[in-house]
Amino acid sequence: MRGVVIHAPKDLRVESIAEAAPGPGEVRVRIEAGGICGSDLHYFNHGGFGTVRIKEPMVLGHEIAGTVEEVGAEVQGLRPGTRVAVNPSRPCGRCRYCREGMRNECLDMRFMGSAMRFPHVQGGFRQSLTVLAEQAVPIAEGMSMAEAAMAEPLAVCLHGARRAGSLMGKRVLVTGCGPIGALSVLVARAAGAAEIVATDVAAFPLSVAARLGANRTVNVADERDGLAPYTADKGTFDVLFEASGQESALRGALDAVRPGGVVVQLGLGGDIAVPMNVLVTKELDMRGTFRFDTEFALAVELMGSGKLDVRPLLTASVPFGEAAEAFRLALDRTQSMKVQMTFA
Fold it and tell me: What residues contact 181, with CB distance under 8 A and at least 6 apart?
């Protein structure tokens, strides 16, 4: 079979890779849709992020969905023909954090398309993938493969919302309206937020955020003081979802968060300086959020039931043989939100 392999920055190749038959407790999935994530773009542009670097050729991709083609021994509940979203997380189940119910913090996590460990964990941008049966989550009959491949980023945002606590009746600020920020708007709206304001430096992602439920959008490139009205009386917002990973966005947003507010840091852009005096004097609660666990199955359920509609984010679908063009398109924020590849 063929897959999309990164060798070095800007060195992306579509090439032959080995196919693995499923062993006991495993299934082989014919991949049909795969979404390009921010981490995929970091590998493509820079060969990694922070201290994480490509040390060997690696198949990219962890936002994937497809159809079960073959099942191994001892597999129950799945059969050839079952349509599934593939959970890219494979925690060990044995370490202290797995035993404590924090499987997203697993000490021996194998996460698809990641160079965090060596040998690297190969990803899902390929025509066929063998995974544990528990990683293949059946999807609703009416759900498209494109929607199913959105389960992973949606799960990230559901976990972030869980870290924030109840959003019912809250005033919410989202900074950075890439796919994660936009999905955070969608989740906050579904969770009962009374008001949602979204910021970005580009018009197109803000238009998508508005379609997903933002009451107001602010282009901070054009309106540098766009959040100023929300800074009166020490701030307005109860919750901030910071999804850009940019220090300037965090600093600019904290003045608009009211005392006692919650700041959930979703975006990762490297180490940044945090204005500690603001956190202390306003008694802000700053919370990290990392990947997801049970939220993956919840994402599949919420999309399948029609309670969350991710389709406004799906801006392009490109055959995987044209992977370089798909990545170029994904980097263009003037017209792209979520670019996916097809693997038929």
Answer: 174, 175, 198, 200, 205, 209, 241, 243, 244, 266, 267
Clarify whether residues 161 and 242 are in a common domain: yes
Structure tokens at 86: 């593939």
CATH value at residue 213: 3.40.50.720
Task: Yes or no: say if 267 and 243 are a contact pair by the CB < 8 Å rule.
Answer: yes
Residue range 248-266: average pLDDT?
97
The verdict on 22 and 146 lying in the same domain is: yes
Residue 175 Cα distances to 85, 91, 235, angstroms: 28, 30, 15
Q: Which residues contact 241 (CB under 8 A, 6 or more apart)?
A: 160, 164, 172, 173, 174, 175, 181, 184, 188, 264, 266
d(CA 213, CA 310): 12
Q: Which of 344, 242, 336, 235 is nearest to 281 (CA)?
A: 235
State the burial class of residue 15 (Cβ atoms within 10 Å of its Cβ: 0-12, 13-18, 19+): exposed
Helices vs strands, H then E, count in the chain: 10, 20
284 part of a folded domain: yes
**Distance (Å, rounded) from C-alpha 340 to C-alpha 188?**
24
**Number of domains making up the chain:** 2
What is the dihedral angle through the alpha carbons of 295, 179, 339, 204, rounded to the nearest 10 degrees?
160
CA angle 83/87/88 to nearest 5° reads 130
Position 271 scores a pLDDT of 83
The rounded radius of gyration (Å) of the Cα atoms in the chain is: 20
**Residue at 293 is within a domain:** no
- Per residue in 85-144, pLDDT (tens digit) is 999 999 999 999 999 999 999 999 999 999 999 999 999 999 999 999 999 999 999 999
- Cα–chain center distance at 92: 21
Preceding amide of 119 cis, omega within 30:
yes
